[in-house]
Design a protein that fits this description.
mainly alpha; binds zinc ion
Length: 92
Amino acid sequence: MCAEHAAEVQEAGFACKRCRCHLAPEALANYNDLIETARACELRRRQEPSQMAKTAALVEALQAYLKALLLCSDDVALHRRAKALRARLAEG
Ligand SMILES: [Zn+2]
């Protein structure tokens, strides 16, 4: 974790454990795949007709974001997105 990324994420009120500056290329590729999966799930959620399918897509998106954050947690926007999805899930 570099000081620059740590400061940026902590300033936004989130925990940063690992930044992309110290990420192996395979881990970064994995991270990008997870983000892509999460975005696809969010898109699917909007198109699903039933509430149950919407919730399932939301859970899937959140899980992908959380897995991505375990690999690399230097992106404030990603923290915010995961937090927003978690809040929406809690609302039911
Ligand atoms: Zn960094």
